[in-house]
Write a structure and sequence with these properties.
By secondary structure, the protein is of the alpha+beta class. Helix content is 28%, strand content 21%. Strand 8, helix 5 and strand 9 form a beta-alpha-beta unit. Helix 2 packs parallel to helix 7 and helix 4 packs across helix 5.
């Protein structure tokens, strides 16, 4: 499925989803950290913002997508949705845990709503591919929309219902799990801002950047102004 109709607020639009590259990511990644300035807010600053949690494939891609959205102040790559304590990238990547690669999104609700973040989530990946996003396969890459309270759960389930009612995915089944948030484990430091710090990595060039660019093309109104953080 190269393109689908998608519900954006009260308007249907057309956009392309899913990683389509055949380049596969190896798990034994050697960090290629470059000296790229990344402005990080201190914990005391982050505490004044709301958090949301989503899983939709490789967190290198997902982190970069949410960081491009206005109202989002910080995005952290990590693991959630499973029962094992203190998971590592090696364990999660090899499918040795029940966790999924997940992002923690810090956002200002005065600038962007949780509903809009749910729209970004569905608009930036293909929720009909079970346990897969592009070349990445396994339960660690499954689609999950986490909720922290009944209000967030209702927003997610109502949005999924709207997608189904309008047959946005042409009869394909939405496999996204709607899961009560429990615990988020931050990934190893070299995973943070990985796309920005490793632009020459083959996976970044062939999968992450094209996915980010597709999102930007179709969600221009959601993007931060150039130079904004």
């Amino acid at each position: 499925m190269s393109s689908i109709k998608f519900l954006l607020l009260a308007t249907s639009i057309l956009f392309t989803v899913g990683c389509q590259s055949k380049i596969k990511k190896t798990l034994q990644v050697i960090p290629e950290v470059e000296e790229v300035e990344t402005l990080k807010l201190p914990p005391q600053e982050l505490n004044k913002y709301e958090t949301a949690y989503f899983a939709s494939g490789c967190f290198w891609c997902v982190e970069a997508i949410f960081e491009s959205v206005k109202g989002v102040k910080e995005v952290v790559s990590g693991y959630s949705g499973g029962k094992e304590k203190n998971p590592t990238y090696e364990d999660v990547g090899y499918g040795k845990t029940t966790h999924a690669e997940t992002v923690e999104v810090y956002y200002d609700p005065k600038e962007i709503s949780f509903t809009a973040l749910v729209q970004v989530f569905f608009g930036s990946h293909d929720p009909t591919t079970l346990n897969q996003q592009g070349p990445d396969k396994g339960t660690q890459y499954r689609s999950i929309a986490f909720y922290k309270n009944d209000s967030e759960k209702k927003i997610i389930t109502s949005y999924i219902k709207a997608l189904k009612d309008q047959d946005v995915y042409d009869g394909e089944i939405i496999t996204t799990q709607v899961t009560k948030f429990s615990k988020f484990y931050k990934a190893e430091e070299y995973h943070q801002d990985y796309e920005k710090r490793n632009p020459n990595n083959s996976y970044i060039r062939n999968v992450s950047i094209p996915r980010l660019n597709r999102f930007k093309k179709n969600f221009e109104d959601f993007l931060k102004e150039k130079g904004a953080h």
